[in-house]
Amino acid sequence: MLELGRLEDLPADYRAALTAHNLVPLWPSLRSLLPPDAPRPATRATHWSYETLRPLLLRAGDLTPIEKAERRVLVLANPGHGLERMQASAAIYLGMQLLLPGEWAPAHRHTPNAVRMIVEGDGAYTTVDGEKCPMERGDLVLTPTGLWHEHGHDGDQPVVWLDVLDLPLVHYLEASYHVDGPRQAVRPGRTDERYAGAGVVPSPMFQRDGAGRPYPVLRYPWSRTRAALEALAAAQHADGAVQVTYVNPETGADVQNILGYHALMLRPNQQLTLPRRSPAAVFHVIEGAAELSAGDHLHAMQLADTCAVPGFCTVTLRNPSDRTPAFLFVADESPLHRKLGLYETRD
Ligand code: 1HN
Question: Cα(286) to centroid of ligand 1, in Å?
């Protein structure tokens, strides 16, 4: 490939004149903007151990009262982007949030989309758009763009959840902001119960409210997702991938516009090489354990551990147990890549 001219090849007075007029020569940067064959992601395969993170998060509970934090979160920052940027990948933000018994994280709404994957503890809830969503381990609770949300905790032990947001992208687009609000009035009814059956939805002719909402389901209980994975595993040949995608039951589309969410089951000792794809992804252990290899790195993921991997990377997952299945939560940038026409799979 042809060597292009470097910035240093240009005379200093010419460079200074360009800078003075807000001009930049393209050719010294062209190869890094458009590298040959595949992107060169800043995102690094990164592993956050829950065993390491948990005591630090609990200590934040002693050090910083909820009133001083609003959201008490340790951000899982990818060193490839620089920790100060607080991003797990180009479009994914990850944080572990702690809520102690009796605490309340006040209502607000914002432009980035969020989901919560509950990691431990009982008795907390998130009220989203007036719906009180119980938070039980493994549940997925959505707080889509623009919807009011607040967290409360009636239990007696700390509750921890993983927050996943498309914040880095929305911030990059200069579209990120929030609005504070009063405590929400809770309305009756739960969207997880309205849409309890796979393959059937409430008949639109009898729906006064609910039908036509862009986010018809706000909570996906783990018990049901787990049962769907078990049933899929039983119905499928033994070496196939067992994964489900969280969808909007009214449209069949991904639950949010930018990030996609999935639950994956690894049978005892199953090894699964994922297709090489353009979007970055995040893996989080809901039950069991998993070994994740990404490029040359092997990460032994224990319960509640989280890994981020860049796009175009070969990822292999393995369940080290010969007795119990492992269950993983997966978040990825695939809806965004598909909408932008950038989605690719490679052999
Ligand atoms: C947010 O609103 C929450 O509501 C958690 O719990 C983490 C990180 C960045 C921006 C907004 C929450 C967040 C956040």
Answer: 21
- Rounded CA-CA distance 15/18 in Å is 5
- How much is the pTM? 0.97
Question: What percent of the chain has pLDDT above 90?
Answer: 91
Q: Whose CA is nearest to atom 10 of ligand 1?
A: 167
Give domain status of residue 300, yes or no.
yes
Q: Using DSSP, how many helices (H) and how many strands (E) does the chain show?
A: 8, 23
Residue 13 is assigned to a structural domain of this protein: no
Q: How far apart are CA 35 and CA 29, in angstroms?
A: 10
> pLDDT class for 237, splitting at 50, 70, 90?
confident
How many domains, in total, are found in the chain?
1
The enclosing domain of 300 has a CATH number of: 2.60.120.10
Structure tokens at 15: 């460079």
- Residue to probe by mutation, ligand 1, list 143, 147, 165, 180, most atoms within 8 Å of CB: 165
Domain that holds residue 127: 38-207+216-346
Contact residues of ligand 1, CB 6 A cut-off: 71, 73, 95, 97, 105, 110, 114, 149, 163, 165, 167
Distance CA(165)–CA(115), nearest Å, equals: 7
Ligand 1 centroid from CA 112, angstroms: 9
pLDDT at 213: 87
pLDDT score recorded for residue 266: 98
